[in-house]
Amino acid sequence: MEELVVEVTRTDEKGNPKLQSFNVPKDKVSTVLEALLYIKENIDPSLSFRYSCRMEICGSCGMEIDGKPHMACSTTTESLKGDKIKVAPLKHYNVIRDLAVDIDGFFDKYKAVKPYIIRDDENVKYESELLQTPAQFDEFIDYSLCIKCGLCMAACPIEGSDSDYLGPAPLAAIWRYVADNRDQGAKYRLEIASGPEGTSRCHFVGECTEVCPKGVDPSYAIQKLRGSMVKYEFQSLFRRH
Amino acid sequence: MAEIEMNNGREVRSSTGSIGRMFQAASGLFLIFFLGVHLYVAHIDFGHPIQFFTSVIENMHNPWWLAFFIVFVWVISYHAVNGLGGIIKDLTMSEKGKSYVNMGMLALYIVTVIYGTILAILVARIPLP
Amino acid sequence: MVEENVKNLREGPMGWVKFYRKGIGYFAFAMHRFSGLVIVFYLYLHLFVLSHLLVGKASYNSLVTSVTYGPFDSFLVLDVLLALVIFYHGANGTRLALNELGIGLHKNKVMFYVFEVIAMILLGIFLYYAYMFLGAS
């Protein structure tokens, strides 16, 4: 039976990275997540990684596969070519153990942009739905597909050099709500996006879009958002709070 | 205060970062023109190449060229200092650190512009050999 | 909370130049920064050289001719490299400026190649005429 070598960057007792290779059976349909599960069930039960749904919905199994952030559940070993796969934890996060990283920092940034519909008439009970035309729906739907896997945060070079930068997913979330005609919270969100850690720190690298498993295109969202930012910042200059 | 609470404790301070980026882009486009003219004049069509000194002085005696180079210095210094500051601020540092970088870049800009302007004017006042 | 022995995999600015399996946008970004820093360095070097105009004709001419006709004419290689980074920076910068205005947001890769090819052709033309100009003496 043909075999595949999976080289995993693990953590030793002191928390330092160490490489360990495992041989797993090779076929045309298995995913990297299945290869890792094979290792855990048959070779080394101490191998740690995070996963849940196995079908690219929960956003848990993000990891660096052959040097690029991928979802382990939707990346087949066949698609990677070669007989050796390098698997490492996502960059720009704290490693808890082996391939499991601490995503609290990312979630804190995501929460900071208020990722929910804000209405001025918050306590009013509506008698019907807030209707939207198909065109209004199309404005934001692509950006609402984000599964918060955090791959874009691992791919962004600015996120890698400055931990305070909000990052692609939170900024794309701002545009998702700003572009939604039901939302009235732009005044809060644009303030965050115009801050020193906001859109002005994006340098059009586009790596976030390259790695996004759901085709959200955070890079495009940030550039759309920047158009609103210039207008907002000019208005802020001539306004007294 | 209420707004800060809504931001889950993250204090937010709006800035002019996007306007700065817009100016950076605009000054960059101007520089394509400025630098194009400069490269043509100084490296392709500049009198006899061995008479560098005389060519420069002659050029700067024309008030239009003098004004051109002074504006060139102002714009290129802005673009350079703004870009340099942007690169430095992409490193992890405190908000205070970033404000020091801003002040440092402003000081560098002022010094460069003053030096460049004075140099251009003094060169324009050198009598032709 | 995570354990105390966690290691942060934040790469810092060194991550800007790691191109392995990255898109062309990453390369464009890193080279834009690098070329920008080179040009800033040259800007101040240029001001230093121009300051010799105030010292006098002999001083300025000897400085400029020494790096163009000798004995330090090997500096011309650096001049060619400088022209290369300036043309690269200008071409990529034009693309970024158009992006800033909302133009070509979905055509970045094509725009990068088109602008760079145009810039390199212009660079070739510039170097040819600049060489002819120097040779005119």
For the largest beta-sheet of chain B, the strand count, sense and barrel status come to: none
What fraction, in percent, of the residue positions of chain C are helical?
over 70%
- Rounded mean pLDDT of chain C is 86
Largest interface: B-C, 40 and 37 residues
Estimate the global geometry of chain C from the Cα principal axes: elongated
Can you count the beta strands of chain B? 0
Supply Rg of chain B. 21 Å
The radius of gyration over CA of chain C amounts to 21 Å
Terminal Cα separation of chain B, in Å? 68 Å
Largest sheet entry of chain C: none
Globally, the shape of chain B reads: elongated
| Oligomeric category | heterotrimer
Distance between the termini of chain C: 73 Å
Please, could you describe this protein's structure?
The complex is a heterotrimer of chains A (241), B (129) and C (137). With 241 residues, chain A is α+β, with helices and mostly antiparallel strands. Chain A has 2 domains: 3-102, Beta-grasp domain (Ubiquitin-like (UB roll), Roll), CATH 3.10.20.30; 104-237, Fumarate Reductase Iron-sulfur Protein, Chain B, domain 2 (Orthogonal Bundle). Chain A has 9 helices and 7 strands, in the order E-E-H-E-E-E-E-E-H-H-H-H-H-H-H-H. In chain A, strand 3 and strand 4 (68-71) form a beta hairpin. Chain A starts with a strand and ends with a helix. In chain A, 47% of the residues are buried. Chain B has one domain (26-125). The longest helix of chain B has 31 residues, at 95-125. Chain B is elongated, with a radius of gyration of 21 Å. Chain C has helices at 24-55, 57-68, 75-100, 108-135, and one strand spanning 7-8. The longest helix of chain C has 32 residues, at 24-55. Classes of the chains: A alpha+beta (241), B mainly alpha (129), C mainly alpha (137). Chains A and B meet through helix 2, helix 7 and helix 9 of A and helix 2 of B. Strand 6 (94-97) of chain A pairs antiparallel with strand 1 (7-8) of chain C.
